[in-house]
Design a protein that fits this description.
single chain; alpha/beta; Thrombin, subunit H; Rossmann fold; eleven-stranded mixed β-sheet; 20 strands; elongated
């Protein structure tokens, strides 16, 4: 049966709508007045008395345009009255501008499905209305891909917002938003869903604010400055030099440190005092090695400045003393003395005990990697690495070591160990300005972003200032959750990073609510405006288990205890 609909000057025959019994009868019918292929303008009237129904012609909501055999789906991005003033005595004409996203079609079996892009454009006069709940679910259906619910659609709370964890992880993801919009709780939710869907996944969180330990009481171990063992000999030369020279080394100082480390490694591995003297002399005098020399005079394995082979700081001090006492001085004695003072200060500083105090109790990286990367998991696949308790001078180097080891672990295990590195406040480690940040950290994170997928090393990026993040890193994140962003430059970065981040969609970022996000990319079926599910109070991130506002009810430490904490003492 055909139904004639009379709406002003238009009269069109359309197929009867197959709405559910519970479907709202009035879905704000309007008519297409213009279409340019990417956008359409819909004309309708609003009554002079009363207000429109809920969710009717609202910015950011999806609508459909009925073509009979198909229904075009669009998103509202602007609403305006035709007249410049509002008439209280008569109905008012309104124009709604929508961006066309795709269309709902029926397959051969009569089952509807959604496809991106438009094959048949609407004619002038085609009927437009609020989208059906069934069609809205189809638009965000992942199809054959397995999805997990992380919340619900903003437009319809009965429809779950689903993501494909496989694509979310393997193609990397980013979550951006200004302070206070719920980024941390959204991250906690995503990580819980990820480890539930991928039981073998290991997650390492670089936590600069010490807030995530409270979010995973049953899934995570916490590593802080007191429980951490990250031996100094695991640091590459550039990473160790950044700690020693506070990021401002002179060229001669790097050369001295390189030679000292190489000699100390050789001394540590020397089988006898005689071999030690011979190896040390060869290193210090820089004599060419004899290719026909006996085996015990050849360079020992791992004697370079970058291979993670143990050595002792006492040997490094001895090497400096011997270099200083040589008759033929290649380095200024003042530089040698200055380096020794720096190393001795680090070695005796309680804030650096995680690097030096227990460094020579083990000769293998295995315990360190096992603790940080959860091998074996023992039911706790997440490691919250608290950076706030570390000296500021060492944070970049520690992040570099952890990022590098994460990639190496996945690569050399041939993908049997899947590792997700989550970088909170990622703009600190990979800033947009190449002159800022620490080059080894940038290189290690960039390597995961560019090559990690092949080996099972994944990257999660969290930042409140995407405009300050290296755009290359953000472009490697194929799924982005954009929460509220008021800065125009930050919005522009998101628009340029994601191909389907249209102008109309990005314009919502300055006004969406807390826990809301617009999700783009490979992990979702189509760009969607959604609200993250609310976590239980014991699953929310917090500062050491309590917010700053809760501090009024906490014990106030004494002055000596507070000073001890600030100097790196026990908490």
């Amino acid at each position: 049966m055909q139904l004639a609909v009379n709406k002003g000057p238009f009269e069109t025959d359309i197929v009867p709508e197959r709405r559910d019994v519970a479907q709202v009868a009035d879905r704000s019918i309007g008519r297409v007045l213009a279409c340019n292929g990417a956008r359409a303008t819909i004309g309708t009237t609003l009554p002079r008395s009363g207000t429109p129904g809920p969710d009717t012609w609202t910015i950011g909501r999806m609508i459909s345009i009925n073509l009979g055999r198909s229904r075009i789906v669009g998103i509202v991005y602007e609403i305006r009255a035709v007249k410049e003033s509002w008439d209280e005595q008569a109905d008012n004409a309104v124009h709604i501008d929508v961006e066309l996203l795709g269309e709902v079609l029926d397959n051969e079996g009569g089952r509807p499905y959604f496809q991106n892009g438009i094959t048949t454009y609407p004619a002038i006069g085609a009927i437009a209305h609020r989208i059906r709940a069934g069609d809205l679910a189809l638009v965000h259906d992942l199809g054959a891909r397995t999805g997990v619910a992380i919340g619900h659609l903003t437009q319809d709370a009965t429809i779950p917002a689903t993501v494909c964890i496989e694509d979310l992880l393997s193609r990397h993801f980013a979550l951006v938003g200004t302070t206070g919009v719920g980024k941390s709780s959204a991250v906690a939710l995503l990580l819980r869903k990820a480890v539930a869907a991928r039981p073998k996944l290991r997650v390492l969180i670089l936590d600069p604010h010490n807030e995530y330990a409270h979010a995973f009481p049953d899934k995570a171990v916490t590593v802080d400055a007191q429980s951490l063992d990250l031996p100094f000999w695991m640091f590459r030369l550039e990473e160790f030099a950044d700690v020693v020279f506070r990021g401002r080394p002179a060229p001669d100082e790097i050369d001295i440190l390189r030679e000292i480390v190489a000699a100390a490694r050789a001394r540590y591995r020397a089988p006898s005092a005689q071999d030690l003297t011979r190896d040390l002399g060869t290193s210090l005098l820089k004599r060419p090695l004899d290719p026909n020399a006996p085996r015990d005079t050849a360079p020992k394995p791992g004697a370079s400045g970058d291979t993670p082979v143990p050595y002792r700081m006492t040997d490094a001090f001895a090497v400096i003393d011997e270099l200083t006492g040589l008759h033929e001085i290649r380095y200024p004695r003042a530089a040698l003395r200055s380096l020794k003072v720096r190393l001795e200060a680090l070695y005796g500083d309680p804030r650096y005990h995680f690097m030096f105090a227990r460094a020579n109790l083990v000769e293998s990286m295995a315990p360190v990697i096992g603790q940080i990367f959860r091998i074996p998991q023992h039911g706790r696949p997440i490691c919250v690495f608290q950076l706030a308790g570390l000296p500021a001078d060492v944070v970049n180097s520690v992040a570099s070591v952890l990022s590098r080891v994460a990639f190496d672990l996945a690569m050399w295990s041939q993908g049997s160990f899947e590792v997700l590195l989550l970088c909170e406040e990622a703009h600190r480690y990979v800033p947009a300005d190449q002159a800022l940040g620490f080059a080894p950290t940038r290189q290690a994170i960039a390597r995961i972003a560019k090559e990690g997928r092949k080996y099972g090393a994944y990257l999660g990026v969290v930042t409140q200032r995407p405009g300050e993040l290296d755009p290359t890193i953000l472009s490697q994140c194929s799924t982005i959750f954009a929460m509220r962003l008021a800065n125009d430059r930050d919005q522009q970065i998101i628009r340029s990073a994601i191909a389907d981040a249209s102008t109309s969609t990005i314009s919502f970022l300055s006004s969406i609510g807390n826990r809301e996000a617009i999700a783009f990319g490979e992990g979702v079926a189509t760009p969607m405006r959604m609200r993250f599910a609310e976590l239980a109070p014991h699953e929310l991130p917090a500062m050491a288990g309590a917010s700053v506002q809760d501090g009024a009810g906490r014990r106030e430490p004494g002055l000596e205890e507070l000073v001890n904490r600030m100097r790196g003492g026990s908490w």
